[in-house]
Amino acid sequence: MKKILVIDFGSQYTQLIARRLRELCVYSEVCPWDEVPSLDDVEGFILSGGPESSNIEGNPTIHQDIFDTKKPILGICYGMQVLSFQEGGKVINEGKKEFGYAELNLLSESKIFENTDTTIDVWMSHGDKVDSLPAGYEITASSPNSPIAAFQNQEKKYFGLQFHPEVTHTKYGKDIIKNFVDICGVVQNWDASDILKQIDELVSNEVKDNNIIAGFFLDSTRSIIPTLDEIIMEGSLSFKNSISNYDFTTVRKLKKDIKEAIKNNTDDNLKKDHKKAQAKLSEIERNFQIILNLYNNNMIDEQRPLSFFPNNQRLVVGVEDKGTDKLIVPFEFVGKKLFYGLTATGTSDLNPMPFDPRYPMVGLHANALNTILDNKIIHEVSKVNVAIIIILFGLFLSFAIPFLSPAMGGLAIVVILSFYGWLSFWLFSNQYIWLDMVGPLLTLVLGYLGITVYNYVQEEKNKQFLKESFGTYVSPELIDQMYESGEEPSLGGEEGYHTAFFTDIQSFSAFSEKLTASELVALLNQYLTDMTDVLLENNGTLDKYIGDAIVAFYGAPIDVKDHELWACRTAIKMQENLGILRKGWQAEGNRWPEIVHNMQNRIGISSGNMVTGNMGSESRMNYTMMGDNVNTAARLESSAKQYGIYIQIADSTYQPVKDKVVVRDLDYVRVMGKNEPVKVFELISEVGQEPENYKKILPAYHEALNLYKNQEWEKAIEAFKASDELEDMFPGRKTNPSRIYIPRCEHFTSNSPGDDWDGVWTLTSK
Fold first, then answer.
1. How far apart are the C-alpha atoms of 613 and 616, rounded to whole Å?
2. DSSP class of residue 646?
3. Judging by DSSP bridges, how do beta strands 3-8 and 42-47 pair with one another?
4. How many CB atoms are closer than 10 A to CB 328?
5. Domain residue extents for the chain
6. pLDDT by residue (tens digit) across 665-724?
7. Contacts of the segment 588-594: beta carbons below 8 A, 24+ positions apart
8. How far, CA to CA in Å, does 115 sit from each of 104, 123, 160, 168, 569?
9. Residue 531 C-beta-side C-alpha neighbours within 13 Å
10. Is the pLDDT of residue 175 over 90?
């Protein structure tokens, strides 16, 4: 039978397309896009709409077999988009959907639009749209929101419609579909009688004429189904030709087609014809099932539930909606035990059972009898043995779980639970032994939960202890990290590579003369609070306060990656925050003397090996640092005043961060109390954040410094004077690095250091 195949891409209108074809007396079938059946007798294809995007990998596509037939294709909505995409066109999504009526304007002649107006009201429902056509295609219609609302390839007879002609909202929709039928060359002569022909073909092709039993049940002259005795008397139960294990695929396909035809037809006479065909097919299916049951000796030979359908008075095994139902006839119950009872929802004979809260009680009796007949009596494991299992689980929880990580402990519990559950099920199913699951499993689960909660409480106590011990001088983040790493601080010291950090207020003794004790305390508390917050926020560890001085270090009690950079960031941020504090004090007017308005602090930073740990007595200890590099940092803080700068860092700190910070090459000095010289730098800012004036100061200063190192004293003096003019001499600043070098150059003019001079300058004061 010639037909048009509707390829379903998931549209809600797919069945409506098939209905429109059948209303035109054209036989049609619907098949999923990924299950293309035999294409024999197919004269054309209609591609349905769908919810997907055609240009996304993995989404539905047109099977190559369809293209290979070279038959006409009509793509609707998604069908149009995927046809265009697979032919080489472009499909886009502009992020907005079109839903509802649209005005379609015809742009060129097309057989698909014959006998329609040049302007048509159509129904749109899409998100994607065709943006450019494949080669060989032309636009046949457009709409305000879809410049390519229809296209065609006349040579291939491929057509695309962005709108839905199958819905009643589209004017001339039926005419457009009829035009496609004419393009396919399908004769419009299909009706309900064709289904009857298919049923007759089913009988002749799949139920063999030489089958003796089939002859009994499919004999149209019989008005009564024969009994088993009649079959034995009149013929033979054997088959001359065997029957395969028939799966009723053809029958179920016909049933589905008839059901759709009854649903969609508006013609009462056609509906009657379809219902007659449905009744005939049901009778054939029933009789054929009987034949198969007899042939396969597949009668009721074990306990199984039966479902009764009073509308057509038949008994089935299985589920009708899932296609697993099998018809049962009365003589199959001969010699069998049948329990009859209520199973429908809402009846009074439904009660809770272990595996079903609403179980039909008739099944209880059947199960009881089956247990007796099969001698499958269930035996319970003794309470003593269950108690031993509980004790073993308790011992496992006590001695094994505490030594496992939470993840491994949880995994062990899951494995044991799974194995015990499987063992219980296997014993019950195969050995008819009931092993109690509640007591042992509750012991395992509740015991594990109890241990987990206990460990959590202990961990929180330990964590709180660390916070109470270190919270005053280590950031909360470092405490958490220290706890997670399991590294608890120990008594005594540990050597490591860290960064020492010293800072204090410039000329703080002068503050004491200008302020009362209470004012001094208030000012100092505000300053120290702000500076300490900066320190802790940048992963620093507070060592101690010495008056107005803050002593800190980085990299202990746990390792801090890039601790040199964190120390530099702290120093820069402290200077920024001090500027904010100064503005606040200045805004308070006469509350504070001018010395407060111009407050400055100095910072010294040095990195290297040092000892950190709890030091002091057994009764009172302090987590602190000791070492030569600690002394260096302290000397750099105090010597910064000689250069008129506020952040001085050692070369050991600068080298790891030289690509990340901006510095001034300050000097090569031998600080008080140390023999080894240290190369030192003024820390300006992080890279890319330096103040505008330093973009001029640093080149001028470093040019002068190079002249100094080359012992060109006269030129160096002039260059340092020039750089001095660029320096910002704000209130409170008494000197700057350029001014420091001018008298040095003057000294060396008359007291040359010689050719072997190493550039080291020895500081004579702190």
1. 10
2. S
3. parallel
4. 21
5. 3-184, 193-297, 380-456, 491-690, 693-759
6. 999 988 776 778 889 999 999 999 999 999 999 999 999 999 999 999 999 999 999 999
7. 592/519, 592/523, 593/514, 593/515, 594/731
8. 15, 19, 18, 17, 80
9. 29
10. yes
Counting other chains too, the contacts that 197-200 makes at CB distance below 8 Å and 24 or more residues apart are 198/254, 199/254, 199/277, 199/280, 199/281, 199/284
Residue 579 has pLDDT above 70, yes or no: yes
pLDDT of 656 higher than 80: yes
Spatial distance between the Cα atoms of 687 and 572, rounded to a whole number of angstroms: 12
Tell me the per-residue pLDDT of 545-563, one tens digit each, with 9 for 90 and over. 898 999 999 988 888 899 9
Q: How far apart, in whole angstroms, are the C-alpha atoms of residue 327 and residue 722?
A: 110
The secondary structure element, H or E, covering residue 115 is none
Alpha-carbon distance of 122 to 105, in angstroms, equals: 10
CB 203 within 8 A of CB 143: no
Q: Residue 378 burial by CB count (10 A; 0-12/13-18/19+): exposed, middle or buried?
A: exposed
Can you read off the two tokens belonging to residue 467?
């916070």
Residue-wise pLDDT for 455-474, tens only, equals 777 777 766 665 555 555 55
Q: Whats the size of the chain, residue-wise?
A: 766
Residue with the larger pLDDT of the pair 752 and 376: 752
- Is the bond into 147 cis (omega within 30 degrees of 0)? no
**Given CA atoms 29, 33, 35, 36 in this order, what sign does their dihedral have?**
positive
Identify the weakest region by mean pLDDT among 65-69, 350-354, 505-509.
Answer: 350-354
Strand partners of residue 542: 552
Please state the φ and ψ torsions of residue 416, each to the nearest 5 degrees.
Answer: -65, -45
DSSP 378-447: -EEPPHHHHHHHHHHHHHHHHHTGGGS-HHHHHHHHHHHHHHHHHHHHHIIIII-EE---HHHHHHHHHH
| Percentage of residues in the chain having pLDDT higher than 90 | 37
Give the span between the Cα atoms of 753 and 631, in whole angstroms.
29
CATH entry, 3-184, from 3.40.50.880, 2.30.40.10, 3.30.420.10, 3.40.50.360? 3.40.50.880
Q: Which CATH number is 491-690 given?
A: 3.30.70.1230
Position of tokens 């000294």?
747
DSSP string of 168-209?
TTSTTHHHHHHHHHHHHT--S---THHHHHHHHHHHHHHS-T
476 neighbors 540 (Cβ within 8 angstroms): no
Longest Cα–Cα distance in the chain: 144
How far, in Å, CA of 54 to CA of 78, rounded?
7
SS3 at position 694? helix
| Distance of alpha carbon 161 from alpha carbon 76, whole angstroms | 5
- pLDDT, residue 223, reads 55
Which three-class secondary structure state does DSSP give residue 211?
A: coil
Task: Write out pLDDT tens, residues 201-248.
Answer: 655 555 544 344 555 555 555 555 555 555 555 554 444 444 555 556
Dihedral, 759, 761, 751, 734 alpha carbons, nearest 10: 120
Triad 402, 408, 413: Cα angle to 5°:
80
Q: Residue 212: CB partners within 8 Å, gap ≥ 6? A: 235, 236, 237, 238, 239, 240
For residue 373, give both structure tokens: 């007949």
CA proximity to 376, closest of 303, 297, 298, 438: 303
What does each C-alpha distance from 516 to 72, 508, 524, 591 come to in angstroms? 101, 14, 12, 12
Asked whether the beta carbons of 633 and 540 are under 8 A apart, the reply is no
Tokens of 711: 């012992």
Q: Which residue has the higher pLDDT, 528 or 353?
A: 528
CB 23 within 8 A of CB 65: no
- Contact between 576 and 478 under an 8 Å Cβ cutoff? The reply is no
